[in-house]
Amino acid sequence: MLAACSGQARADDNVTTEIQSLKAKLKELQQRVDQEARKTRQVEAQAKAAPMPATYKALPVDPCAVGKVCYKGITLTFGGWVDLTGIYRSRNLASDTGSIYNFIPYPQSRNYYFPETRFSARQSRFSVLAEGNVDADTHLAGYGEIDFEGAAQTANSVTTNSFNPRMRQLSLEVDRTDLGLHFLAGQSWSLNTPMKAGIDPRGIDAPGVIDFELVPGFLAARQPGLRVWQDIGSEFKLAASVENAQTSFFGGNVPTVGTPAVGPQGVLNPNLQVNLTGPGGSFFNNLNNVSLNQVPDVTVKAAWDPRLGPYKLHVEAWGLYRQLFDRFNNANHSYDTGSFGGHIFAELIPKTLDLQLYGARGVLGRFTASPFPDATVAQDGTILPLTMTAAAVGLIWHATPSLDVYSYAGLERAKAAFANVGTVPFGYGNPLYNNTGCFTENSPAATCNGNTKEVRQVTAGIYDTIYQGKYGTLKAGVQYSYTQRLAFDGVGGAPKTDDNIVMTQVRYYPF
Questions:
Q1: Which of 199, 314, 399, 486 is most exposed by smallest CB count within 10 Å?
Q2: 3-class DSSP state for residue 114?
Q3: Cα–Cα distance between 301 and 316 in angstroms, integer?
Q4: What positions belong to coiled-coil segments (predicted)?
Q5: 96 with 120: CB under 8 angstroms?
Q6: pLDDT tens digits for 146-186?
């Protein structure tokens, strides 16, 4: 019995020892778990505290969320739509989805007397955004976008309507969140194009209309270049860009030296050259002129997005330097120009009523919606730049969660630029130009110069979301616009014309 009791005591001691050992191991494991949890909380806190650039959204925890595709650490986001636009114009412009307002015909043209109606699917678009994080502070984004507004000689409406895909945007963006610094290289919207927030090359604040030429007073261009911008706090951005330069000359399209151009200002001096056409193999269409610019366009912009409670506000201002260039009598000549402008987007009533304001002044012809030329030339080769004033205002009423009602008014006005050599007028808007034939159908072209002084427009429309769900979004809209084209006064008077335009649109967003 004593032996049995002694054995039982030893067994109890062993069990107690084992329990104590297990408790010690459990405590050690618990300490390791607590330590890992602290590390995880520290990493999450650092991630939340790190500022993210305004130009992209942070990647979700699951990089393959709904609507995205992942490939080798890259997140792909697809966008675009399938579009059908219906077009009616009271004056025949022989134009597709974009109304070329500066070519609305005067009564001198037969086109003035009959309308045009057509359908087009060419505003259909496809885009892809590729994003990746190199490290915790470096974000890369590549963006590409195409539509079908290209038109080769074979792209006719007789049988196949085989219109060409064309590059709209193709750019690389590098963001450093630790420095608040951003870089962009490639083709994108010009820096002077109005934006929705901050400095965003993809999120422009364009009028929400159907017409591809948008509204007079809205300035924009897509072109290749380099851009850098800096975050200054959470509300202010400062940017600068160098972009591809091009000058649109009026009456000065001289393809090669020794070939004079005949325009409303008479015969230009054959020793004057303002542009060239590309030779074979240059990858330029030989029907398009390339101006003689020797320095890029330079733009600076400041953007401010203050926090005003539930109200959204975006304010921006920009300045643009351009140099115009020609060669005359075996010597080069340049003309430096400066332009400026700004834009405001404001929520007047949160999620109900929005205001858009646009304004600019300077040598901005190629950026206009009409479009206007940038400059003309005198007979002696003097460059005469056209100073433009552009302004537009829009109101967008979100009547219901699915229905928008909008209205815009805008204008683009040129200041005359001309010079006379003896009794021969040269330039743009010269009062000696012959306008006597502008009011008579089929009168000779030489009797209707009619340089455009101003283009103005009012427009209104509705846009409705018919369906939105897991199968995409289906939208439809209709708009009406009334546009006037007013000419400078010349011999015989100041001709004017107008156009009533109705457009409809059905658009499916599969992404």
A1: 399
A2: coil
A3: 7
A4: 12-46
A5: yes
A6: 999 988 878 888 888 889 999 999 999 999 999 999 999 99
Two tokens, residue 378: 């005198």
Kindly state the helix (H) or strand (E) to which residue 473 belongs, with its residue range. strand 472-487
Q: Count of alpha carbons within 13 Å of 413, Cβ hemisphere only? A: 8
- CB-CB contact of 77 with 71 (8 Å): no
**Stated pTM of the model:** 0.82
Beta bridge partners of 391: 359, 411
CA angle, residues 274, 431, 253, in degrees to nearest 5 = 15
Report the amino acid identity of residue 155: A
Give tens-digit pLDDT for 231-251: 999 999 999 999 999 999 986
Distances (CA, A) of 284 to 135, 255, 281, 293: 40, 14, 8, 16
Whether the per-residue pLDDT at 487 is higher than 90: the answer is yes
CB 149 within 8 A of CB 114: no
> Are the C-beta atoms of 487 and 453 separated by less than 8 Å?
yes
CA-to-CA separations, 258 to 35, 246, 270, 329, in angstroms, rounded: 83, 22, 5, 11
- Single-letter code of the amino acid located at 364: L
β-strand partners of 116: 89
Q: Are 145 and 171 in contact (CB under 8 A)?
A: no
